[in-house]
Amino acid sequence: MEHVSVSLYLHLRTPRQKNNMVTSTTQTQCPNCKSPIQAQIQQLIDVGQDPGAKARLLSGSFNHIQCGVCGFDGTVAVPIVYHDPQHELLLTFVPIEASMPKNEQERIIGQMIKRASDQLPPEERKGYLFQPQTVLTMQVLVERVLEAEGISKEDIDSQRATMRLFEEVLTLPEDQFEPFVKEHDAEFDATFFQMASLALQSIGDGNAREAMGARLEKIIEFSSFGKKLKAQEEAVKEATESLQALSEQGLTHETLLDLFVEAPDENRVVALANLTRRALDYSFFQLLTERIDQSQGEDKEHLTSLRQQILEITEELDRIQEARAAQSAAHLKTLLDAEDLDQALMQALPMIDDLFVGILQANIQDAEKRKDEDLLNRLSAIEQRLRSLAQESMPEGLKLAQSILEIEDEEGAIKLLEESKKEIDNDLLNALVSTIQQLEAADQQEAAARIQKVYKHALKLSMQEKMNPSD
Fold first, then answer.
1. CA atoms of 287 and 284, how far apart (whole Å)
2. For 75-117, what is each residue's pLDDT tens digit?
3. How far apart are CA 32 and CA 72, in angstroms?
4. What's the rounded Cα separation, in Å, for the pair 307 and 62?
5. How far apart are the C-alpha atoms of 38 and 69, rounded to whole Å?
6. DSSP character at residue 121
7. Which helix (DSSP H) or strand (DSSP E) does residue 216 occupy?
8. Contact assessment for residue 265 and residue 238, using Cβ atoms and an 8 Å cutoff
């Protein structure tokens, strides 16, 4: 992680460039009722200058409008140029609905291609820039973008088939549901559930979301992959409970290893590894190797197999983490270059997680050490705006947890708990347990012990409140 933050810092020290996405707020007409709408129109998508632009295009949020008069929800029809210098890809698209004379199309497209070319250093201006490829539909444009990423036509067709399956199960009569799921069992795979999960999150209507959720629960119940997901979910729950129980006594490498050795199946081992990756360090594997050396027969085989399994899981987790770190670094670069930070943050919000925040904070520290005031001011502005957004959307229990964790002395934290005991909920308790685990993994035992006492007091107050709610 430290290496990522330093290399990102060096990259960020290059002169600040304007975002190459041609974006303007303009008044357009609703395609349905012709009412005037103020909309953000984006016509040049240059992923070399704005890495997040590709995600916005593929997610469907690109040039999206909603009409407050008739309820139209869709995309504005405007000429588009898509530029990906890494893959030497230059695409142009003019929707038929734009109803634009050919000479006007050529003028607008030409201006955007020139802008894309001008942003490149002279040595990177290659022949493909003089041979733009025209696509006739947005669907074909998206397919070409995906193909450049190594996603084949077959993969795209498979995703469409998954979407058709998803639409079919939403309208299927109740009495046909179970036999249909069993007949198409192999099609209800990871791709299907990922798509269904994203669709569920995007539904604004509570009743519709509840109805879709009930259908997905049935698919989980009847399908083979769904049963596997259920088993993994149960394994995570049980692993979390076992870690919480141990954290009250003090989690050590020895007790953690015991949990792995006693794991009833592979799902539990995977869940434990995901939850405790930071603790699976050299000392942990040294302890496991010592146990292998001291054991014989079936115990030795079991421990040897367990070591190999944990190594493979941690290697995969590290690969995923590296990819996520690179993606977070790219998102941070996009935010630093954004002319409108609030707009850029709202677009990037679904991709911001703990890893992104960690990289942001590491770069703030680097900027402070180097006394790079310009970079520090921009990074601090991002951090402050993120804090505000997080505070606005945070559940009450997490707000209380944050306030408690900001208090350095145990007595002050307990006093706040006493004053806010009616607000103690599972969000607060889980946040405290998670903090304890993180501190123990970082070998900050004193801080972990302090939060542990606060957690026990919060648990006690919670139980008292449930037993005497009117007090």
1. 5
2. 788 899 999 988 899 999 998 887 788 888 889 999 999 998 9
3. 7
4. 47
5. 13
6. -
7. helix 206-222
8. no
Extract the runs of DSSP E, i.e. beta strands, from 116-212: 133-135
Tokens 């290893």 belong to which residue? 257
CB count in 10 Å sphere of residue 51: 16
The radius of gyration computed from the CA coordinates of the chain, to the nearest angstrom, equals 27
Amino acid at position 287, single letter: L
Q: How many residues does the chain have?
A: 471
Name residues whose C-beta falls within 8 Å of residue 16's C-beta, 6 or more positions apart in sequence.
Answer: 336, 337
Q: Are strands 23-29 and 133-135 parallel, antiparallel or unpaired?
A: unpaired
Amino acid making up residue 260: F
pLDDT digits (tens, 9 = 90+) for 211-264: 888 888 899 999 999 999 899 989 988 998 888 888 777 789 999 999 999 999
pLDDT digits 0-9 by tens, 273-319 = 999 998 999 999 999 999 999 999 999 999 999 999 999 999 999 99
Is pTM beyond 0.85? Reply is no
Give CB contacts under 8 A, 24+ apart, made by 168-177: 169/215, 169/219, 170/212, 170/215, 177/215, 177/218, 177/222
Residues 6+ apart with CB under 8 A from 235: 265, 267, 268, 270, 271
The pLDDT score that the predictor gives to residue 2 is 30
Q: What are phi and psi of 245, to 5 degrees?
A: -65, -40
CB atoms within 10 A of CB 320: 10
